[in-house]
Amino acid sequence: MTIDATMVGRSYSAAESYQVGREKIREFADAIGDANPAYRGDDAIAPPTFAFMVGSKALDQLLEDGELGLRLDRIVHGAQKFSYTRPIKAGDDIAATATITTVRKAGDVEVIMYETALTTVAGEPIATSTSTITHNRADG
Amino acid sequence: MSAVEVGTELPSLTVTFRREDLVRYAGASGDFNPIHWSDRMAASLGLPGVIAHGMLTMASAARVVTDWLEDPADLVEYGVRFTKPVVVPDDDKGVSVTFSAKVDKVADGLAEIDITAVAGEEKVLGRARAVVRVP
């Protein structure tokens, strides 16, 4: 199977909620070379792009939908946007749901947009992530 | 932060990515896409070599804004297009990316910031923009 425009609207929720730990925030901040003190300690908030990692747990489910026929090693990230209601912070327990919003095809190349809602497990909004990915089915 | 107005320039930032940094980012983020560590897999997708994670470039670009803000929680919107791959050579030197940013709109307690990211002579991000709360 391959992805097509009839699959717009399909939603995929992360298998489990994501519990944000202060040491994971520190590890992530270290990996992006960001020494900002706001990202350290008991009251740490997460760097802005940490939201993508949390949302990627929903993307994992999307990639497992065999009907879409997508492979991670054929995907290139084209664009990314975040809107924040508030920063992610240590102690958050986050639910992520990704919804396919656009599918455009040109030969072997598919351009897919999906929106990932990050909320607390109680449903309070935290951030929305909008991603554009390009998937190439051609064999090199 | 002093008064923010249209034309205010934020302090620029230069970062260097080496293969080691990509491995560290892969581990911290869980993004193990082989185009970020395997020359063979990168080439099979038609890329000129191993490239930096777009999200690592995006994270670095955000620092121009969050280093300038007193509180990074004042970032309310942030988006980029990954227009050119940032190729990271397998050597000790790596690749340097320089980020600069300028306020181009101020209204209703929000400032809009345009960010430029340059590696070598090429812009690697397009439409890189942030919206922040300002006093």
Automatic annotation (TrEMBL), chain A:
This is Acyl dehydratase. Residues 7-128 form the FAS1-like dehydratase domain. It comes from the Bacteria. Pfam families: FAS1_DH_region. It comes from Kribbella caucasensis. The lineage of its organism: Bacteria, Bacillati, Actinomycetota, Actinomycetes, Propionibacteriales.
Automatic annotation (TrEMBL), chain B:
Transmembrane segments: none annotated. SUPFAM superfamilies: Thioesterase/thiol ester dehydrase-isomerase. InterPro entries: Fatty_acid_synthase (IPR003965), HotDog_dom_sf (IPR029069), MaoC-like_dom (IPR002539). One of its GO terms (biological process) is fatty acid biosynthetic process. One of its GO terms (cellular component) is fatty acid synthase complex. GO terms for molecular function: fatty acid synthase activity. Residues 13-97 form the MaoC-like domain. Gene3D superfamilies: Hotdog Thioesterase. PANTHER family: (3R)-HYDROXYACYL-ACP DEHYDRATASE SUBUNIT HADB, 3-HYDROXYACYL-THIOESTER DEHYDRATASE HTDX-RELATED. Belongs to the enoyl-CoA hydratase/isomerase family. This is Acyl dehydratase. It comes from Kribbella caucasensis. The lineage of its organism: Bacteria, Bacillati, Actinomycetota, Actinomycetes, Propionibacteriales.
